[in-house]
Amino acid sequence: MSLFELAAVGAAFCWALSGILTAGPSAYLGAFAFTRIRMSMVFVMLAAVVAVSGSWRTLGAESIGALCLSGVVGIFLGDTLLFATMNRMGPRRTSILFALNAPLAVLLGWVLLGETLSGRQLAGIAVAFAGVLCAIVFGKRKSQLHNWEQVKGPLWAGVALGVGAALAQATGSLIARPSMAAGAIDPVAGSALRVGTAVVCFYVAMALPGDRFRAKQKLTLPLAVMTALSGFIAMAVGMTLLLFALKGGEVGVISTLSATSPALILPLLWLRTGEAPALGAWVGAALVIAGSALIFSA
Q1: Is the pLDDT assigned to residue 9 strictly greater than 90?
Q2: How many CB atoms lie within 10 A of CB 250?
Q3: Closest CA to 133 of 111, 164, 162
Q4: Is 0.85 surpassed by the pTM of this model?
Q5: What counts of helices (H) and strands (E) characterise the chain?
Q6: For residue 276, what are the CA distances in angstroms to 182, 230, 233, 268?
Q7: How far apart are CA 259 and CA 251, in angstroms?
Q8: pLDDT in tens, 29-80
Q9: What is 218-277 written as a DSSP string?
């Protein structure tokens, strides 16, 4: 395995680890408040990098609108739904549901942009959806009692939130794709603009009447540290590794390897909870990765 391929696996590991780290703070603060705090911290990190590098100059006026809209849909809406799913379904199911963003992005590209959909991609989409179904239906044994394996509320509601998060992420990526594909925009600067736009939306929502957008509990220092660490691992380390991998590796291979988070999160959960994941969880994760391989190699 080349250094670039190892970097892609490293990115997937960072995202899996971040999913473990976010489960507790998200449940404690509430999905909306946690996402607002986390993204505010991530924006500070990204803005600092952009300020030092001067890469904000790569943001052309013609691309700013699309990137801002992408931030509203993919981050403000997508991440809020993602952590709402986490609070209902736990990190394992959330990870597998969020992996649907790849096949959904392909379907949206076909429907909205008229992109070609090959037979291999159709097969990949079908395999990925089968993997998600397997992991949700057969991914838990009765002997698994950890809180993260319990479904809070109706199962269909949690699945709907997870699919909504994946759809929002896929739509946000689709909106940003033409601007980023042009190659003139620095990826870190583009990410900073998207995250910054989402942060503005979070604080605008905070100004609305009522308490539904406010934190359920007071933010403590340990929670703040854990939240910042999860954001740093996912956005700073994970995205840097992915960008490095894409610079030197084959796009299809790198994209597939970086989509292995649903499998990598399973041993992390085993270590964290002391409960071995069920066979259905492993099979479902394997099918999702196989589906991703078919999609990205088409």
Answers
A1: yes
A2: 15
A3: 162
A4: yes
A5: 13, 0
A6: 45, 24, 25, 10
A7: 12
A8: 999 999 999 999 999 999 999 999 998 888 888 889 999 999 999 999 999 9
A9: PPPHHHHHHHHHHHIIIIIIIHHHHHHHHHHS-HHHHHHHTT-HHHHHHHHHHHHHS-PP
